[in-house]
Design brief:
The complex is a heterodimer of chains A (381) and B (280). Chain A has 381 residues and is an alpha/beta fold. Chain A has helices at residues 22-37, 43-46, 60-64, 68-71, 85-94, 108-113, 133-143, 192-202, 213-229, 238-247, 259-262, 294-304, 307-317, 324-329, 332-338, 343-350, 368-380, and strands at 49-55, 74-80, 100-101, 144-145, 148-149, 152-159, 161-164, 186-189, 231-235, 252-254, 269-272, 278-285, 351-353. Chain A has a five-stranded mixed sheet with strand order 9-8-10-7-11. Chain A has a three-stranded parallel sheet with strand order 2-1-3. Chain A has a three-stranded mixed sheet with strand order 6-12-13, sandwiched between helices.
């Protein structure tokens, strides 16, 4: 969805009163030239500088906090995505047209190597230093390459479990979804990395993003069984998952922490972290390689890491924050959901932050395309 | 001569638009359907490998999609015909009102209709609540939503007004005099319908069927939103190839395979209808 907030300043209604011939056109052009020569103010000079944003809906809240675009004569033109992979498509088409984006953090290395992302100039983002050291330690591997950062973390989360606490006890394992009493009341989302991670861990795979072909086949079979025998549906978005949980169609699902707040007070939906762990992720902002608005893009990112930016994004969207000062100041509800005092526990015990899939076939491990093909097999199965 | 050129010039914008925005992109995708992907980049090639993979990996999904599309197109065409027939021949002075009511549903957006059906068909939805309160069901019927049934119901509801337009247009062209003459000569209602009405509205029948069949075969939003875990159609996989897997060559090969199969189906439909309605 493309949002264009700016409206044309004038609408011309045309009606033909005279025959349009070469002479009339020449007269018109001469008149227009004369007006231009008199120096009418250019509309372009007056317009706010437009930056394109390609990313998840809600992640733009951090960037725009404190009326940042209006105060700086900027206009953030947003294209919201429905899957993280869409960003790669947009960058491939023309990275210079993407001023700001939120790539899936395990893709960052790959995108940097493909020269689709601009190296981040940390001197232009003084708020980078405020990022909690634990967050830095878990993002460095994916977000930096050859000493340069290509993405700047702004929030994190995990593809954990969600359950209706008024109707069922807290699940402790992904396999709880297979319980007979939940048959037809289970949902997952269309998030293939999260699904393959979860059921790989159920299968005992230590490194879900480095599965062999045999392990991947085993996981596909497990997911097809889950789909055939237990799932109500595969939610196409978190919005749909919220509807499913709110309406009571579903009592247990795969999900993401903010869903428990977004769903509202009418149902008691809570996140749960299964013993097999959930797939953790840390989200960041990147700049498309060759962007013509590099300075403004850096300024936006810096604003997202300011106290105002972090609190606006964290509280407005019920997402976690990444700077130490925001972690201290954020609302009690947000602190209760994310427990910033136990960040290491979050990234070590509850979740696993995974590396990128293998890009090249080595004869043993499944590649990124194999993972995507595996998910299609689940959908077809 | 000058007039001929003037006529040609008037259609020039349409021709240019068609060439640039339809024919050229189509040719581009046809060409890259023979290319392949290496390190997520397009590599020019001339190989049928993508088409082979399409048959290996998507044959079942294709058969399912065509089954669904045929069913939806058949129900839509039938419903559209009967509504159009009623408006044209039976409704008398209410015809215009009925036509307006049917066409007014076009103003409801596509997604609005999908979400409306979700509200109606869900386990906590209007239909299940009604059945439960009437004592007709003890438990909510779960297969109404997130099933192929839901896709058929939603798409038929969406497509009927579109299919009705060409159908009504064809039926308006049917002259009343031969109908009255046939009835006066003792022809039954069925005979009048099969021997006089249907042969004359063949173009409308074909347009209605083609419209509903092509839209259903290519749709990927409805199956995703109301189809549940077992109703993934080819459109979903074309989208996945282009958007998620960044594999435009296989996405294009899949698209052209479906396009060819759709054209073949429509050709077969046209021939069959012409054969069945052949003058006796």
């Amino acid at each position: 969805m493309k949002q264009a907030d700016s409206k044309p300043t004038q609408i011309l209604r045309t009606r033909s009163y005279t025959e349009v011939d070469r002479r009339t056109v020449m007269k018109g052009m001469a008149a227009a030239g004369a007006v231009a020569a008199m120096g009418l103010p250019s509309q372009k000079a007056e317009a706010a500088r437009a930056l394109s944003y390609v990313g998840w809906e809600g992640y733009d809240t951090f960037l725009q906090a404190g009326d940042f675009p209006a105060k700086n004569d900027l206009d953030l033109q947003k294209t919201y995505i429905s899957t993280a992979d869409e960003i790669i498509t947009k960058l491939r088409l023309d990275a210079s047209q993407v001023d700001l984006c939120t790539p899936y953090f395990i893709h960052d290395d790959f995108l940097a190597k493909e020269k689709l992302l601009q190296p981040i100039d940390l001197s232009k983002i003084p708020n980078f230093e405020k990022i909690h050291p634990t967050i830095i330690s878990y993002t460095e591997g994916n977000m930096s390459e050859g000493g340069a950062w290509y993405s700047v973390p702004m929030t994190y989360g995990s593809i954990c479990m969600m359950y209706n606490a008024d109707r069922i006890p807290q699940p402790t394992s992904w396999t709880d979804m297979l319980k007979d009493e939940y048959k037809g009341k289970v949902a997952i989302t269309n998030d293939y990395p999260g699904n393959l991670f979860a059921w790989a861990r159920v299968a005992g795979v230590e490194q879900p993003n480095r599965m062999t072909h045999a392990e991947l086949d085993h996981v596909v079979k497990a997911l097809i069984k889950l789909k055939k025998d237990h799932l109500r549906t595969i939610a196409s978005s978190y919005g749909e998952l919220i509807n499913l949980l709110a309406s009571g169609e579903v009592v247990i699902s795969q999900g993401w922490e903010p869903v428990s707040v977004w769903v509202g007070d009418k149902v008691n939906i809570k996140p749960a972290y299964p013993k097999e762990k959930s797939m953790g992720f840390i989200e960041g902002y990147s700049i498309g390689h060759g962007s013509g608005n590099v300075d403004d893009a850096h300024a936006f990112i810096n604003n997202a890491l300011s106290m105002e930016g972090q609190l606006a994004g964290g509280q407005g969207n019920s997402m976690p924050v990444v700077t130490g000062e925001a972690m201290a100041k954020i609302s009690d509800g947000n602190k209760a959901l994310y427990n910033y005092d136990a960040l290491d526990d979050y990234f070590q015990v509850k979740t696993d932050v995974v590396p990128m899939y293998a890009l090249e076939a080595d004869g043993k491990h499944a590649t990124w395309d194999d993972y995507q093909e595996a998910w299609e097999r689940v959908l077809k199965g | 001569m000058r007039n001929a050129w003037r006529h040609r010039l008037t259609v020039l914008p349409a021709v240019v638009t068609f060439l640039f925005f339809f024919a050229l992109p189509l040719c581009f995708f046809l060409v890259i359907s023979f290319w392949h992907l290496k390190h997520y980049k397009l590599v020019p090639n001339l190989s049928m490998d993508n088409y082979r993979r399409v048959f290996e990996q998507y044959f079942d999904a294709g058969v399912f999609t065509f089954g669904m599309a045929l069913l939806i197109a058949a129900i839509t065409t039938l419903l559209a015909f009967f509504i159009a027939y009623y408006i044209r021949f039976r409704s008398r002075r209410f015809g215009a009102v009925l036509l307006f009511v049917v066409l007014a549903t076009l103003f409801g957006g596509y997604l609005v209709k999908i979400y409306a059906w979700k509200t109606i068909l869900g386990t906590q939805g209007i239909l299940n609540s009604m059945l439960g309160s009437l004592g007709l069901t003890q438990e909510p019927i779960t297969w109404l939503l997130y099933s192929p049934t839901a896709v058929v119901v939603t798409l038929v509801h969406f497509l009927v007004p579109f299919a009705m337009l060409p159908m009504y247009g064809s039926l308006r062209g049917v002259d009343d005099v031969p109908l009255a003459a046939a009835r006066d000569l003792g022809a039954s209602g069925r005979r009048v319908l099969v021997d006089i009405v249907l042969p004359q509205c063949q173009p409308g029948l074909f347009a209605a069927f083609a419209l509903s069949f092509l839209i259903s075969a290519g749709d990927y939003v409805t199956p995703r939103l109301v189809g549940g875990p077992h109703t993934f159609m080819v459109g979903n996989f074309i989208e996945s190839q282009f958007v998620n897997r960044l594999n435009a060559p296989i996405g294009s090969a899949l698209s052209f395979t479906i396009l060819a199969a759709c054209l073949a189906t429509l050709f077969a439909f046209k021939r069959t209808v012409a054969h069945l309605l052949k003058a006796r």
